[in-house]
Amino acid sequence: MNADKLSLEQILNEPVAVLRRRFFDEHAPLPHGLLAALESDPRRGVQLLARSLRTRERKQRAEARRLHKLHQFEQELRAQGYQLIAGVDEAGMAPLAGPVVAAAVILPPRYKLRGLNDSKKILDGAKRVELAEQIKRDALCWATGRAEVEEIDQLNIYHAGLLAMRRAVEGLSINPDFVLVDARKIPGCPAPQRGIIHGDMLSASIAAASIIAKTTRDAQMCELDQLYPGYGLAAHKGYPTPAHYRALRELGVTPIHRRSFAPVRRALGLEPVQTEMFDEAAKGQELKLICEQTE
Question: For strand 178-182 and strand 85-91, is the pairing parallel, antiparallel, or unpaired?
């Protein structure tokens, strides 16, 4: 009897609870041939364990394929000679209060981080924070930029978002060779760039930037919640929720509310901002954000 077969036999003789703890809960590496042996075992508990392990294996392979596909744009650019590729995205276009925050990230080549995705797809806030901290540790460099409420009201939200993105790129400690941007192009960007529609779902670099931008802004809104209690900023992060509308009616408008936004102007008893101040791109972006927020 060879050693490999003896090893499998010894493993299979262990209680099912021990096998589940070791290989499923603790993620111990599966010896060659063990999964097939578990599937052939007549015990129901062992077959259930084998089914769980097989399902996890399929999910891991699917995740590996997804992460590989996330690098398609970066790989194309590296084939053209670009090495330092920055991804840029923003957070906070639709809220009624607080700044708009952008992030720029340069990842190592072929960077793989399980769960890396568009921040809007990651519903667990603690998971987003965990991913953001890991990205910050692993990135070649990263930076954030913001546009304040006063700039949003002066420029309009579309152009303020672009300003925050430019500041994020300018804050990088390494000059990028190329910049990938979610859906837009940044005026005055110091490097060649490409806007990718739904880039936060299609590019690893943009997805990483979206996570840092989102978690940075969320943390800032939690801080503002301490300065302006009663509005629920820590919960809704300034977005136009029923609770936020109610607070505006009952408590009034704070200095961090965007006075160019219609709900805030209504709370102040002001007329809507003239639509001529918004260009067509801005109006299209605003409509897209409103639709996403109300879905």
Answer: parallel
**Is 0.85 topped by the overall pTM?**
no
Which CATH architecture group holds 70-295? 2-Layer Sandwich (3.30)
Question: Tokens 């990483």 map to which residue?
Answer: 208
Place of tokens 């990718």: 196
> In this structure, how many other beta carbons lie within 10 angstroms of the beta carbon of residue 189?
18
Could you give the residue range(s) of every CATH 3.30.420.10 domain in the chain? 70-295
pLDDT at 278: 45
Q: Using alpha carbons, list the distances in angstroms from residue 31 to 22, 35, 222.
A: 12, 8, 47
Mark the ranges of the chain whose per-residue pLDDT is less than 50.
1-4, 6, 275-284, 286-295
**Sign of the C-alpha dihedral, residues 234, 121, 54, 43?**
positive
DSSP 177-200: SEEEEESS--TT-SS-EEEETTHH
